[in-house]
Amino acid sequence: MTDQFEPTIIGFTCNWCSYRASDLAGTARMKYAPNVKLIRLMCSGRLDPTFVLRALSSGADGVMITGCHPGECHYIEQNYKALRRFLLLRRVLNGLGIEPERVKLVWASAAEGARFAAETTAFVEEIRKLGPLNWGKADDGPQATDHDQPSFAHGKEMEVPA
Amino acid sequence: MTAKPKFAMYWAASCGGCEIAVLNTHEKILDVDANFDVVFWPVAMDAKYKDVEAMEDGSILLTLFNGGIRNDENEHLAKLLRQKSKLLVAFGSCACEGCIPGLANLSPVGEIVHTAYNTITTDNPNEIYPRTSYDVPEGELHIPTLAKVLRPLEQVVDVDYFMPGCPPESHQIAAVIDLVIKVVKGEAELPPKGSVIGVGDSTVCDECPRARNVKMIKEFKRIQDIAPVDSELCLLEQGIPCNGPATRSGCNARCPGAGAQCIGCYGPAEGVMDYGARLITAFSSVIDATTPEEIDHILDGIPDPTGQVYRFNLAGSLLKANREAWKVK
Amino acid sequence: MTEKIGVYVCHCGSNIAGVVDVVDVANWAAEKLGHQGVVIARDYKFMCSSLGQELIEKDIKELGLTRVVVAACSPHLHEKTFRTAAKNAGLNPYLVELASIREQVSWVHTDKAVATAKSKAVVSGAVSRVIENRALDEIKVPINPNTLVVGGGIAGIQSALEIANAGFHVYLVEREPSIGGHMAQFDKTFPTLDCSACILTPRMVEAGTHPNITLLTWSEVVNVAGYVGNFNVTIKKKARFINEELCTGCGICQEKCPKKVIDDVYEAGLGYRKAVYTPFAQAVPNFPVMDKENCTYFEKGTCKACEKFCPTNAIDFNQQDELINIDVGNIVLATGYDLFDARRVSNYGYGRLPNVFTSLEFERLSNAAGPTSGNIVLRDGKTTPKSVGIIHCVGSRDRNFNNYCSVICCMQGLKFAHLVHERTGATVYNFYIDMRTAYKAYDEFYQRVLEEGTLFVRGKVAEVTDAARYSNERGKLIIQTEDTLAGKQRRIPVDMVILSSGLQPRKDAKEVGKLFGISCSMDGWFTEKHPKLDPVSTMTEGIYIVGCAQGPKDIPSSVAQGAAASARVLDKILQKEVALEPIKATVDQAKCSGCKICNGLCPFNAIAFIEDDKISYINPALCQGCGTCVAACPAGAISGTGFSNEQIIAQIDGLLLRNLEPAEA
Question: Which pTM does this prediction carry?
Answer without folding.
Answer: 0.78
